[in-house]
Design goal:
six-stranded mixed beta sheet; 10 strands; binds ligand F0G
């Protein structure tokens, strides 16, 4: 029986036999070959989607949270705290419930998707909506965790990144090698940092021979790394990555530079177009922030980035796009971008007319 990422990758994680494993059987998510995207990028390219929305709470955060909460429990911590654009809070609340410890979450008021708020509340977290943005909420929880014996479970907690690096391991296991390129959304920049760490460790262990180029994508109105300075009032419909001053800024730049990749910005329109394409052509429903990786892929393809790269290094190339969270997290967004269903009379004739029979 599958037992979660800690048991599966125990040797690569900082746990001992005394660590009480708090798991919801996260990880083991599918790597799906996208025919449609492979065709768009061109001959010789295979595009894969790492569907992290299929984790227990619907996002990749669960990989980090099983580690952070297990280690908090090992240290006999009674309370965990985080700031969140939604997914971290949903995950922290669920793992705290499983562990029997208290969870406090600070969210930016009115700026998180409904599904995520519902999750944090139903799992019994103490949820506080702060009149401010994510960056302000993060400074507050950092201050609280420094002063009181409360464990911070944002990605500043090193165990979070340890857990999240296991997604890179799974990709290598599935492909039998590392991908050549990896597209990933960037918000607080923990995940790009974690993946890069994972790939480097697998290479050091001799499990893979090459490393991917890391291609990170921020939303245009919330792109501090691309612009080179913090953004005071970040704006984007992709609320999960509406972050103006990422905690792992330097590490994300290191991943970009060491891998000879890039970090670029994608517009809300590009995000929505990738969001619709994934749902309508691949049958995969993600939340808007997750579609940033595919929006970025398409933007680079439009600039012939992959074709040029291939001229330098001929041969088949594998691209992995990380899809970080499930579309059901943010149902309001669908209703805003797709036409609502037509209302018809409860009569056979009326229905047949509408469906063209
Ligand atoms: N995609 C989704 C769906 C996210 O929820 C996040 C981050 C990211 C991408 C970006 O990952 O921060 O590691 O660069 N969400 C955090 C949260 C900030 O609070 O849930 P990152």
């Amino acid at each position: 029986m599958y037992s979660g990422i800690i048991e599966r990758f125990r040797k690569q994680l900082p746990v001992s036999k005394d660590t009480p494993v708090v798991s919801l059987k996260e990880g083991n998510t599918p790597l799906i070959l996208s025919d449609c995207l492979s065709r768009i990028i061109g001959k010789g390219f295979e595009v894969y989607l790492k569907y992290e929305g299929l984790n227990p709470t619907g996002s990749f955060k669960d990989r980090g949270m099983t580690m952070a909460v297990s280690k908090a429990k090992e240290a006999a911590s009674r309370v965990i705290i985080c700031a969140s654009t939604g997914n971290t809070s949903a995950s922290a609340a669920a793992y705290a419930a499983k562990a029997g410890i208290k969870c406090v979450v600070l969210i930016p008021e009115g700026a998180i998707a409904l599904g995520k708020l519902a999750q944090a509340l139903i799992h019994g977290a103490k949820v506080l909506a702060v009149r401010g943005n994510f960056d302000q909420a993060l400074s507050l929880v950092k201050e609280i965790a420094a002063k009181y014996s409360i464990t911070l479970v944002n990605s500043l907690n090193p165990y979070r990144l340890e857990g999240q690096k296991t997604a890179a391991f799974e990709i290598c296991e599935d492909l039998g090698r590392a991908p050549d390129f990896q597209c990933i959304p960037v918000g607080n920049a923990g995940n790009i940092t974690a993946y890069w760490k994972g790939y480097k460790e697998y290479k050091q262990d001799g499990k893979i021979k090459s490393l991917p180029k890391m291609l990170g994508f921020q939303a245009q109105g919330a792109a501090p790394i691309v612009k080179g300075h913090p953004i005071k009032n970040p704006k984007t419909i992709a609320t999960a990555i509406r972050i103006g001053n990422p905690a792992s800024w330097r590490q994300a730049e290191a991943a970009r530079d060491e891998s000879r990749g890039l970090i670029d910005a994608v517009s809300d329109a590009e995000i929505i177009s990738a969001y619709k394409l994934l749902a309508s052509r691949e049958g995969i429903f993600v939340e808007p922030a997750s579609a940033a990786s595919v929006a970025g892929l398409l933007k680079l393809a439009g600039r012939n980035y992959f074709r040029r790269a291939r001229r330098q290094a001929p041969g088949a190339a594998r691209i992995v796009c990380v899809l970080t969270g499930h579309g059901l997290k943010d149902p309001d967004r669908v209703i805003k971008v797709i036409k609502k269903p037509k209302v018809v009379k409860a009569e056979l004739k009326a229905v047949l007319k509408e469906i063209g029979y």
